[in-house]
Amino acid sequence: MNSISLKMPVTIKAKLTEKLKEKMLKEMTEGISQAELEMQQIDIQEKRVLQENEVQNPTPMDMQRMNAIRQHFAQEREKRAQYREQTLARKEEVEKLVLGAEIVQGTLERQVEVHIGDDMRELMNVEVLVEDDKIIAIRG
How many whole angstroms separate alpha carbon 84 and alpha carbon 28? Predict the structure, then answer.
């Protein structure tokens, strides 16, 4: 056998334009707002569920159930808070980027026919550069 077909990664990069920067910042701002809204909704749901499960003379089982409810809502609130903080940090990074910078958008796969003697490093390091949704370069 002298050749084989393999799946290889392709890095997708975008050239930062004003349009892309605005789009990214808008998406992040919306994500932050959504997380804040969900945190408010979680607070409201928690109060409602705690009121529905409230009893006059709570037994140890009742107390355990109430603590489990509080813990569940605290975990959900924490997930949103972490997302919000991470997104705020990413937003600050994007705001500092200069136009023309190349940012990694993700990775795709491509089918490649490899032969004996091919340079594996060259086959692995392929990038596609995009500017405003148009491919402007393919680098190998």
Answer: 9
Q: Any idea where the domains of the chain sit in the sequence?
A: 1-17+99-140, 22-96
Spatial distance between the Cα atoms of 106 and 94, rounded to a whole number of angstroms:
16
H or E element, residue 72: helix 60-96
2 HSE (CA, 13 A, CB side): 0
d(CA 46, CA 73): 6
7 φ/ψ sector (left φ>0, alpha ψ -120 to 50, else beta): beta
Which secondary structure element, helix H or strand E, spans residue 52, and what is its range?
Answer: helix 18-52
The secondary structure element, H or E, covering residue 111 is strand 102-115
**pLDDT for 102:** 93
Tell me the pTM: 0.73
CA 126/CA 124 separation, integer angstroms: 6
In three-state secondary structure terms, 127 is strand
Distance CA 122, CA 69 (A): 55
User: What integer best gives the mean pLDDT of the chain?
Assistant: 91
Which residue type does 94 have?
Answer: V
Q: Which two tokens stand for residue 3?
A: 């050749």
